[in-house]
């Protein structure tokens, strides 16, 4: 099974991707992780990407496409793949169709207001770096595991989160349209417990 995974920040996409990969015996290919490790080990792609990442610019499509092509031609992808973080544009999606076209595209749907409450309610411990959600805390300033001080990361401020969600929707809308027209889109309700969401994804995939 060849899969593309789409989902907004905070939807639990990484967790779901891991479960689906185990279930389907396919590799989880996160282009974000690949870029970070290519840069760290200074591969040719890593060196090309590094200059862009360091200046805060977007890594050009051609660099990403070459990286994904190389990765999908590795032996462990013979059985399929789950792509996470790619494609992000219709141009990238068209390139992917020429490399190894996906069979299905899972789109995890979660309401913005739920993502906002999940993400803005996140607290991190200054002492042990543990991550918690205020819904599970007795005192939202005190770490339940070490007693350290909890704080909200700048990235989790409501304005920042809403901005990230807006960027996500703007960027993803044409992609969703592209895959819907290709008859490959599998919208999945991303609300509910992680187990419920995994079950919903598997149902959609096994159709
Ligand atoms: Zn702590």
Features of the shown structure:
single chain; 207 residues; alpha/beta; Rossmann fold; five-stranded parallel beta sheet; three-stranded antiparallel beta sheet; 8 helices; 8 strands; binds zinc ion
What does this structure look like?
The mean pLDDT is 93. The strands form two sheets. A five-stranded parallel sheet has the order 2-3-1-4-8, sandwiched between helices. It has a three-stranded antiparallel sheet with strand order 6-5-7. With 207 residues, it is α/β, with parallel strands linked by helices. The chain has a single domain, classed as P-loop containing nucleotide triphosphate hydrolases (Rossmann fold), CATH 3.40.50. It is 49% helix and 15% strand. The protein has helices at 13-24, 31-40, 44-54, 61-72, 90-100, 112-120, 158-181, 194-206, and strands at residues 2-6, 28-30, 81-84, 104-109, 122-125, 131-133, 150-151, 185-189. Residues 125, 127-128, 130, 143, 145-146, 148 line the site of zinc ion.
In short:
The mean pLDDT is 93. This protein has helices at 13-24, 31-40, 44-54, 61-72, 90-100, 112-120, 158-181, 194-206; strands at 2-6, 28-30, 81-84, 104-109, 122-125, 131-133, 150-151, 185-189.
The top level CATH class name = Alpha Beta
> CATH superfamily, called what?
P-loop containing nucleotide triphosphate hydrolases
Order of helices and strands: EHEHHHEHEHEEEHEH
Oligomer: single chain
Strand order of the largest sheet: 2-3-1-4-8
Distance between the termini: 13 Å
Q: Which percent range describes the beta-strand content? A: 15-25%
Q: What would you say the CATH architecture is?
A: 3-Layer(aba) Sandwich
Low-confidence stretches: none
* Average of the residue pLDDT scores: 93
Largest sheet: 5 strands, parallel
Please bin the fraction of helical residues: 40-55%
Helix count equals: 8
In angstroms, what is the radius of gyration?
Answer: 18 Å
Unique bound compounds: zinc ion
Total separate domains = 1
């Amino acid at each position: 099974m060849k899969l593309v995974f789409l989902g907004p920040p905070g939807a639990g996409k990484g967790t779901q991707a891991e479960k689906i990969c185990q279930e389907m015996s396919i590799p989880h290919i996160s282009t974000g992780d690949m870029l970070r490790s290519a840069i760290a080990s200074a591969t040719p792609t890593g060196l090309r990407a590094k200059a862009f990442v360091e200046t805060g610019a977007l890594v050009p499509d051609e660099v990403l496409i070459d990286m994904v092509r190389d990765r999908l031609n590795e032996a462990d992808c013979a059985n399929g793949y789950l792509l996470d973080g790619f494609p992000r544009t219709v141009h990238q999606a068209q390139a992917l169709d020429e490399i190894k076209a996906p069979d299905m595209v899972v789109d995890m749907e979660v309401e913005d207001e739920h993502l906002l409450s999940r993400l803005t309610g996140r607290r991190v411990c200054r002492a042990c770096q543990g991550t918690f959600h205020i819904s599970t805390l007795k005192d939202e300033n005190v770490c339940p595991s070490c007693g350290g001080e909890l704080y909200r990361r700048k990235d989790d401020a409501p304005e920042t989160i809403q901005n990230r969600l807006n960027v996500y929707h703007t960027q993803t809308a044409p992609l969703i349209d592209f895959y819907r027209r290709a008859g490959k889109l599998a919208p999945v309700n991303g609300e509910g417990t992680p187990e419920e969401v995994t079950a919903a994804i598997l149902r959609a995939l096994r159709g």
